[in-house]
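pls read this stuff:
=====
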Amino acid sequence: MALSHTDQLDQLFRAVLSLGSVDECYCFFEDICTVRELLSIAQRMEVARMLSDGSSYQQTIAGTGASSATISRVKRCLDYGEGGYRLVLDRMAETEGQS
């Protein structure tokens, strides 16, 4: 199910797009999210990276501490979602390849 576009979400995404560095991201996300929310998002990103790289569920659990439910949800998004994880992972790989 795709997220409905709203003015509030557009404002949030424009705010994220305006950030120019990792340090700016830390400042913004520490203000807008709880520590638990940030750690959870970061964990899901790592789960996506590991699954994309071919790690098994057991390896991903061991490497991230994520629950099997979280891993299943991320896997479902990788396979049938809107392509957001794949887009970001591919772009990050390109950027790291250029470093």
In short: The two ends are 36 Å apart (CA to CA). The chain has a mean pLDDT of 95.
